[in-house]
Specification:
Strand content: over 45%
Number of strands: 8
Radius of gyration: 15 Å
Number of helices: 0
Strand order of the largest sheet: 1-2-3-4-5-6-7-8
Amino acid sequence: MIDNKPVQELWLNPGFYSYHYQRDKGLNDSNPGFGAEYRFSTVASATAGRFYNSDREYSNYLGAYYQPVALGTVRIGAAFGGFNGYPRMRDGGWFLAAVPVLSFDYRRVGINVSIVPSYKDRLYGAISLQLKLKAF
């Protein structure tokens, strides 16, 4: 378990790369955009951003990471938040989701690995990689 201590870190990211489980759907694996993650605790952070999603539409997100467990230098937990822009999910409107996330940070560079489950024929599952750079 990670000790919960206050920190002040701002991380910026250029979107995601997603490897979709359903390779035959013609989904967009490259999901460029811009996002920010403000780490206010050793176990929690807030995040927001915009990216070009797997359905070739723009999505926005707003949420939080909670990662209270570590395996070596990898933090383990989940991201909780709201997303929009997926045409088959609430006609592109906002919806809530929880996604397992592994994170590794080294000095000024980090990576978040999200394990996104499929949801019926509305959202297609993937393993998503998000490179991030520490601003401060």
